């Protein structure tokens, strides 16, 4: 079974530019999460989709960040315009809904390392 | 105050040693607890869930103390391959709920040397 995939693995952009990150969850996982780790800090939650609906977006830093999950499959996270403090590793995770024990385990993708210059 | 606090280490131990990591969480409403392992420049991977009665998986033992809001991870007979960062992770919702947001500690770095 394929795991969570993310694209690109690395992105280097200049301040003011736009970047779009993509996440493909494990097939059949309705829950999709975005997290971010900035240097020297803990991994922090950004938002949670259940299928195509935003369940919780309270972790989004500001309105420069836009997440979508049209069709309830893959998700994109767009940062526009990017600022220096947006640099970090963006992780995506997915999980199943309910069911057997352990079904809510979140499986993480390899992350996208974003550097804003 | 941070939701999850961990001793960042680093812990440097010889092969075969026993090492313990501790973690505290601030929200008494927290219901699900996990230890994740993260290798350098890799994604976090679930090591084990932590249950109220404590649980063991081979060389790894996790304990939860709800009264003290404290979680521990014990690794016995350390292997070189155990070298990684160990993340204490908390979820406010019960297992299987839609309250999926995870709160992470900053991680404890472990190096096992030969």
Folded structure, characterized:
- The complex is a heterodimer of chains A (117) and B (114).
- With 117 residues, chain A is an all-beta fold.
- Chain A has no helices and eleven strands.
- Chain A has strands spanning 5-7, 10-13, 19-24, 31-37, 44-50, 53-56, 65-68, 75-79, 88-95, 107-108, 112-116.
- In chain A, strands 2, 4, 5, 6, 9, 10 and 11 form a seven-stranded mixed sheet that branches. In chain A, strands 1-3-8-7 form a four-stranded antiparallel sheet, with no helix packed on it.
- Chain A is globular, with a radius of gyration of 14 Å.
- Chain B is mainly beta and 114 residues long.
- In chain B, 0% of the residues lie in helices and 53% in strands.
- In chain B, the strands form two sheets. In chain B, strands 2, 4, 5, 9, 10 and 11 form a six-stranded mixed sheet that branches.
- In chain B, a hairpin with a 5-residue loop joins strand 4 and strand 5.
- Chain B is globular.
- Chain B starts with a strand and ends with a strand.
Instruction: Provide a count of the helices of chain A.
Output: 0
Strand content of chain A: over 45%
Cα separation of the termini of chain B: 38 Å
- Report how far apart the termini of chain A are: 37 Å
Question: How many H/I helices of chain B?
Answer: 0
Largest sheet of chain B: 6 strands, mixed
Count of strand segments of chain A: 11
Q: Which overall shape of chain B is indicated by the principal axes computed on the Cα atoms? A: globular
* Succession of helices and strands of chain A: EEEEEEEEEEE
Residue fraction in strands of chain B: over 45%
In short:
The complex is a heterodimer of chains A (117) and B (114). With 117 residues, chain A is mainly β.
